[in-house]
Amino acid sequence: MSKPSPTTPPSPDEPFWRRYRREILFLTVFLALLGGGFTLISVPWVNDHVIEPFTAGIAQVSGGVLDAIGQNVTMQGTVIRNARFAVNIRNGCNGVEAMLIFLAAVLAFPASWRSRGLGLVLGILAIQVVNLIRVVALFLTGTYYPSLFDASHTVVWQTVVILSGVLLWIFWANRFAVPPAPPESAA
Amino acid sequence: MARKQKEAPAPPVRRKSWAGRLIRNILLWILPVWLVWTAITPVYNRFLATAAENLLNLFESPNVSDLLVQGAHMAHIQRLDFPPARSLVGSIRVTDVHFHLILLGALFLGVPGVPWRQRFSNLSWALLLSVFFHLLLLVFWVQFVYTTQLGAWSLAHYGPFARNLFGLGKHLLDLPFKLSLPLVLWAFFYIGRMMEELKK
Predict the structure, then answer these.
(1) In B, which residues are within 8 Å of A97 by CB distance?
(2) Domain contains B31
(3) B60-99: per-residue pLDDT in tens?
(4) Is residue A184, in this structure, part of any structural domain at all?
(5) Which chain B residue's Cα is nearest to A157?
(6) Closest to A34 (Cβ–Cβ): which among B168, B176, B194?
(7) Which residue in the set A34, A42, A158 is minimally distant from B168, CB to CB?
(8) Over the stretch A124-176, which tens digit does the pLDDT of each residue have?
(9) Is B165 exposed, middle or buried (CB count within 10 Å of its CB: 0-12, 13-18, 19+)?
(10) A1, pLDDT greater than 50
(11) Residue of A121, A154, B141, B180 with fewest CB within 10 Å of its CB?
């Protein structure tokens, strides 16, 4: 009697929870980590001592980039302003949501801890780079095309940041997460 | 000779991995889905505002909440029991409630190796669940305005439990849940397939 291979289709006689064990496990861990992560960053102490300084850091880096491209901005906490426009970097604009979604998806996916660690470090860095581009692009949009700012702020750039997180996760899962199947024995 | 050529093994065809095709397809689908979403947004916003208003009225006696759609994107919250000059108590950009449908559509349509019929069937279920989510978010948004944004009136009519429930609920629904919903729904339908395909 041979043990079924991992790619054997599930038998319809098996109970639901066993047939969809991997799906249920992934979704349970993913949702638990998402819920836990977002609840954690909603705690006032965490928000004041972790998220706000992190957001101020993002504002500083974005301000530095905007200065480097000649926008002559001044910084005040999480506010970046020049003579024509000002923007306040708040929760939702700091890439933390995309990072948490990416983190939950990486940790819930079957992989070695080494792969997960690598994915988290590189993925979170990549998401922050995309978010930095977003903040700079939004500031420039607000300065030169203010009528497009609202739609850009939510629809365009939030979609781009979350999309980049999802695509990075698929790339990581493909390249680093699942060990390659053993070669089939020659008949 | 001709027979010999026929029997020669064909050169191996280099096929992109399933994940590579998934990433490519998602990127290719983003623009068409975006265009469709942009076209239906004004109609969908009207539907959402009307449905959310009816949902709110179910729990009111008499009906005092009105969601007035203005233009293609905005809805104003009106309380009919307030003096006319102060009856507009808040505004919602309804388009922001459902822009994640762009990502959802691209994710569901981009899965390689799934028959179109099944792709559209799974997408339909995901869209139906998303509509319920959008209605819930709109109801929470209006209740958030009532419970926390109307100063003394809010304090006089709602207790701390209601303020916390609708404040935290609106925050969680509007950012984390809204942004992660496309991936959650996609994973529900396709994570098993993805795991199988990546093992190959």
Answers:
(1) 175-176, 179-180
(2) yes
(3) 888 999 999 998 899 999 999 998 888 999 999 999 999 9
(4) no
(5) B99
(6) B176
(7) A42
(8) 999 999 999 999 999 999 999 998 988 888 889 989 999 999 999 999 998 88
(9) middle
(10) no
(11) A121
Residue type, B38: T
Peptide bond into B62 cis (omega under 30): yes
Q: Smallest CA–CA separation between B195 and chain A, in Å?
A: 8
In-domain check, residue B83: yes
Give the C-alpha separation, B107 to B101, whole Å.
Answer: 10
Domain-embedded: residue B75: yes
Instruction: Test A174 with B93 for CB contact under 8 angstroms.
Output: no
Short-list B139, B127, B129, CA closest to B169: B139
In the predicted model, is pLDDT for residue B56 greater than 60?
A: yes
The parent domain of residue B75 ranges over 18-190
Quick check: B180 and A34 CB within 8 A?
yes
Separation between Cα atoms, residue A56 and residue A47, nearest integer Å: 12
The answer, yes or no, to whether ipTM is higher than 0.90 is: no
Q: Give domain status of residue A67, yes or no.
A: yes
> Looking at the 3D structure of chain A, how many domains does it have?
1
Contact A23 B188 (CB under 8 A): yes
B196 inside domain: no
Instruction: Report pLDDT digits (tens) over A52-81.
Output: 999 999 999 999 999 999 888 998 888 999
In a domain, A186, yes or no: no
Q: Is A173 on the interface with B (CB under 8 A)?
A: yes
Q: Can you point out the beta strands (E) in chain A? A: 74-76, 79-81, 86-88
Measured CA to CA, the distance from residue A95 to residue A142 in angstroms comes to 19
> Touching check for A46 and chain B: CB below 8 Å?
no
* Token pair listed for A49: 């001592």
Contacts of residue B22 in chain A, CB cutoff 8 Å? 170
Put simply, the answer to whether A174 touches B17 (Cβ < 8 Å) is yes
What are B62's two structure tokens? Answer: 């008499």
Q: What is the pTM of this model?
A: 0.85
